[in-house]
Design a protein that fits this description.
By secondary structure, this protein is α/β, with parallel strands linked by helices. The protein is built from 6 helices and 15 strands. It has one domain: Purple Acid Phosphatase, chain A, domain 2 (4-Layer Sandwich), CATH 3.60.21.
């Protein structure tokens, strides 16, 4: 089952509805990051993404590039209108909504990893959380202040999708690290798919202090867990490039290792800064 949300004008909080989704044994996942509203992203959505017929779409951060600036909220409207969020089912002659799972990027929350800057929170900000609550609390959509930037979705009995935060709002160590391991223990699934924004195993030279912190902390705190629990694939983003590694475990090629894919080439053209 997948959950979708719909605005409720009475209580000013989304409602949760459940509905039966696709064949969980045959799932097509589309992943990318660093989208934006530029011409290349629009062409990709129209000519490529919409023709791939995905069941689930993962976007690993830097989605609308609103930078958590209140007056830029319409950037999200333009993004969603151009996304292929519906899928026609010929067998049942019906239209199904395609679930999106978003990771937080620096241009979504308006901060760099570990920058020390405080994210503005009120009843409508950041828009990333206001529009897209992705975790529940006691079975309900939580208030904005309780909406996390790391969460998981289980699809069927075989697939676990985890979305993580590389230090924008939640540190990669301590509480989030404990949550990652506890989630792996509670969900002994065959396929473990992870997504987050800034890469740990980057194909590009990292010059920014904040990006290097993500690499160092990721290698210290996250990669040992990925190796221990046999993560299948990790989608990284942020550098506006593309990579595909061999299977990696304990820092070396290994037949039972993890693929690292990315790094955010949905539409952004130039290498990212800080």
């Amino acid at each position: 089952m997948f959950r979708i949300t719909e605005p409720s004008w009475i209580i000013d909080l989304p409602k949760i509805y459940s509905y039966k989704t696709f064949d969980v044994d045959h799932i097509k996942i589309l992943s990318g990051g660093d989208v934006g509203n530029d011409k290349i992203a629009r062409q990709m959505n129209k000519n490529t993404v919409s023709k791939l017929d995905p069941d689930v779409i993962l976007i690993g951060g830097d989605i609308a590039y609103d930078n958590n600036i209140p007056v830029c909220y319409r950037a999200w409207d333009y993004i969603i209108l151009r996304m292929p969020y519906q899928k026609y089912e010929p067998v049942t002659d019906s239209i199904r909504i395609i679930p999106f799972i978003f990771a937080a990027g620096n241009h979504d929350l308006g901060v760099n990893s570990y920058s020390g800057a405080k994210i503005t929170h009120n009843t409508h900000e950041p828009v990333f959380k206001h529009y897209f609550p992705q975790n529940t609390e006691n079975g309900n959509v939580p208030k904005l202040s309780a909406r996390r930037t790391f969460f998981s979705h289980k699809i069927g009995e075989k697939l676990l999708i985890m979305t993580l935060d590389v230090g924008y709002e939640s540190a990669m160590e301590s509480a989030q690290k404990d949550w990652i391991e506890n989630t792996f223990k509670r969900s002994p699934t065959t396929l473990k798919v992870l997504q987050y924004h800034g890469p740990i195993l980057s194909a590009c030279q990292q010059d920014a202090y904040f990006d290097n912190l993500v690499i160092d902390k990721g290698k210290d705190h996250w990669l040992p867990l990925f190796d221990k629990y046999n993560v299948t694939v990790v989608f990284e983003n942020h550098t506006h490039s593309f990579k595909r590694t061999k299977r990696i475990k304990h820092g070396k090629e290994h037949q039972n290792g993890t693929y690292y894919l990315g790094e955010g080439s949905w539409g952004a053209k130039k290498p990212s800064g800080v």
